[in-house]
Amino acid sequence: MDIYVPDDLLYKYLSYCVAEALSDNEYTDREAFLNIPVPIENLREVVDAIKDANLNNAEVNYKHEIELLDFIVGKALGLDDAEIGYIIKQFSEDPFLKRISPNMPHLGMKFQAYRSNYGRDGQRYL
Fold first, then answer.
1. Which end of the chain is more exposed for a tag (fewer CB within 10 A), N or C?
2. Helix or strand run (H / E) with residue 34
3. Can you give the residue ranges of every domain in the chain?
4. How does 100-117 read in b/e, with b if 16+ C-beta sit within 10 Å?
5. How far apart are the C-alpha atoms of 3 and 11, rounded to whole Å?
6. CA–CA gap between residue 123 and residue 116 (Å, rounded)
7. How far is residue 74's CA from residue 77's CA, in Å, rounded to a whole number?
8. What is the pLDDT of residue 33?
9. Whole-number Cα distances in Å, 16 to 8, 23, 40, 103, 122
10. What does the mean pLDDT of the chain come to?
């Protein structure tokens, strides 16, 4: 079902709201869509703020840079664009591969916390 939105600003605002609503859960009902509040007085300012927030979205920028790096490495290995795209797609959709991510040295070491509540008094060996 297509919905025609006559105003470009209103379209940008509604597409953002629908994307946010669908990011929480896969399905939404008609009432949730009809109850989206529309800022009539300052719609342009709200759309500009959404645009600025999306430009400064670190996660999206990070993923874009990783994808560019994947293409550089893929080209160096002699892969064509279709093969590189397939590999990138598999790393985002495959149940095993999507859990693999680059190890970034600037993030530091990750330590796994140990349980401290062994037994009744918190001691591991009683």
1. N
2. helix 30-34
3. 8-55, 58-99
4. eeeeeeeeeeeeeeeeee
5. 10
6. 7
7. 5
8. 80
9. 12, 10, 16, 32, 48
10. 80
> pLDDT, tens digit, for every residue of 101-126?
777 666 655 555 555 555 555 555 54
Q: Which residues contact 91 (CB under 8 A, 6 or more apart)?
A: 97, 98, 100
47, 13 contact by CB (below 8 A): yes
10 Å CB burial of residue 45 (0-12, 13-18, 19+) is exposed
Q: In one letter, which amino acid is 55?
A: L
Three-class secondary structure of residue 36 per DSSP: coil
Q: For residue 117, give the amino acid letter.
A: N
